[in-house]
Amino acid sequence: MAIVRSTYQGPVIIIGGAGSLYYKNGVQLCDDEGFAFKHWYAWPYVHMEYMATRMFDHGQTGFGYFIRLFKWAKSNRENPGWFSWLFRPWANLLLWKARQMLTNPDTVGLIFCSRLALSMWEGVKDIQWSFLSPPWQLRDKGLRTGKYKVLVDDSAGSADPAINNGIYNEDMAVAIVDEVENKKLSYKHWTCTGPVGLREW
Q1: What is the pTM of this model?
Q2: Beta-ladder partners of 150
Q3: What is the pLDDT along the chain (201 residues), one digit of tens a residue?
Q4: Domain CATH for 153
Q5: Could you tell me if 28 and 115 are in contact, meaning their C-beta atoms sit under 8 angstroms apart?
Q6: Closest to 147 (Cα-Cα) out of 165, 124, 126, 133
Q7: Looking at the structure, do residues 52 and 70 belong to the same domain, yes or no?
Q8: Which 3 state secondary structure label does DSSP give 81?
Q9: How many CA atoms lie within 13 A of 184 on its CB side?
Q10: Which domain of life is it from (predicted)?
């Protein structure tokens, strides 16, 4: 609200989260059943490793180890073998605890706050704005390829492909600069996707 109350008169771009993107069935990601546990579980192993490394890089070691354990438990369940059966009870217990945590409204509250911010901006007409929700697999430490695809979100699910897709921060920055210069997405909720997996992840 500080922007709304300020004397600044130029256009603004607000960056939220993927939780406000719509599926084709008209349900927003953060309202999907089992959010966010189900969507964490669906992450590719490479994205889980990226998320763990990112947490360690930012000094959040506890969260980093939690993601590593989550990844191990998922692998234990999905890749059964004679040895993995010995640890299956521990894997199931860990995933059960993770489900409790990742479906707790207090845990994912920030994502719901981002959606609330979008709802607030959708009523603003006296300031030129656009609202960017990055895809679910946003990654840094990538490459700037200059390649990205913009998807405008609506309740019909026009941005559905972005929910399980990704982009590097470097390419998302290009998309943001292009919007600053071209102003093609004013008063719209949008996302962007691009190539990932070009380096370690």
Answers
A1: 0.89
A2: 192
A3: 566 677 777 899 999 999 999 999 999 999 999 999 999 999 999 999 999 999 999 999 999 999 999 999 999 999 888 788 899 999 999 999 999 999 999 888 888 888 999 999 998 988 999 999 999 999 988 899 999 999 999 999 999 999 999 999 999 999 999 999 999 999 999 999 999 998 887
A4: 3.40.50.720
A5: yes
A6: 165
A7: yes
A8: coil
A9: 11
A10: Eukaryota
Q: Are 193 and 133 in contact (CB under 8 A)?
A: no
Residue with tokens 């008063």: 187
Distances from the Cα of 44 to the Cα of 39, 136, 142, angstroms = 10, 12, 17
Which one, of 126, 127, 130, 122, lies nearest residue 183 by Cα?
130
The answer to whether residues 195 and 135 touch, using CB atoms and an 8 Å cutoff, is no
Indicate the number of domains in the chain: 2
CA distance 117 to 199: 34
Q: Does 42 sit behind a cis peptide bond, omega within 30 degrees of 0 on the bond before it?
A: no
The answer to whether residue 148 is domain-embedded is yes
- In DSSP notation, 31-58 reads GSTTTTHHHHHTS-HHHHHHHHHHHHHT
Alpha-carbon gap, residue 160 to 152, rounded angstroms: 10
Is residue 119 domain-shared with residue 47, that is, in the same domain?
no
Rounded to 5, what percent of the chain is helix, strand, coil? 50, 10, 40
Q: Are residues 53 and 149 in the same domain?
A: no
Q: Cβ of 106: how many Cβ atoms within 10 Å?
A: 6
